[in-house]
Structures are given as C-alpha cells and as structure tokens.
C-alpha cells in the first residue's frame, strides 16, 4: 500500500486506480417503495376488553373494641370479692434504639427547647413594657 500524493491546484481529475477502473455494473432503477399505510386512529384492536390485573387485597385488620358501657354498680359494689389477678402483666421492654431515631429525638428536644425559650423571651419583653404595679 503506497501513499499517493494528489496535487490540489490541478484541475485534472486523478487517475482511477486499477480496482476502481473495472467496469461498474449499471444500477437498475427500482421503483420507489410504496408509501406506508397511514396509521389508524384510536385504540388498537388487540387491546380491547382486556381485564385489569387483580391485586390481592391485604387481609383486614381486626381492631379490638372497648366496651363503652359504664361499669354496673353490682360489679363495683362487691367489696368482699378479691379482684381477679391479671393473667399477664405487660413489662415495658425498651427495644434497642436506632442511633438515627435517637439523634432525631435529641434534635426534636433541642428544637422544642429553643421554641420555648423564644416564647419566654418574647413574654418577658412584653412584660417589661408594662411593669406590674403593686397597690400596697
């Protein structure tokens, strides 16, 4: 493969190389392809009446309802009966706190304290404008 220099200023076309010199078969003109059919408007036929996918409903949450009736005087007046011992006593166990939760709780405490300090400072400022007079 040799590099061939072609002068720019000459008006003569460069000589074709041997590979290009071979006869190029004439291209037969093909008719242009038919224009595609125009798109139909509306919903495609295959999408009609497709049932919606059913989502499994979560199981219902059953809440305990407290009785709204006041205690009857018969149940409170029986003093000679001992109160029934509770079956289970709920012990308050503190779960190990998440450090992010702990930091959020501290920030909330600090912000509440700051708000209270501002309110107190504002109240003190307004109270200084109108001092309390004692009538002794």
Question: Could you explain the architecture of this structure?
Answer:
With 136 residues, the protein is mainly alpha-helical. The chain has 3 helices and no strands. The N and C termini lie far apart (121 Å).
Outline:
The protein has 136 residues and is mostly helical. It is 29% helix and 0% strand.
Name the features.
about 30% helix; single chain; about 140 residues; 3 helices; about 0% strand; elongated; mainly alpha
Gross morphology is: elongated
DSSP strand tally? 0
Q: Helical element count?
A: 3
Radius of gyration, whole Å: 47 Å
Chain-averaged pLDDT:
76
User: SSE order in H/E notation?
Assistant: HHH
For the report, how would you describe the main beta sheet?
none
Please estimate the helix content. 25-40%
What proportion of the residues form beta strands (DSSP E)? under 5%
Helix and strand content put the structural class at mainly alpha
For the termini, the CA-CA separation is 121 Å
Low-confidence stretches: none
Blueprint of the fold:
Blueprint: H1 18-21, H2 73-77, H3 99-129
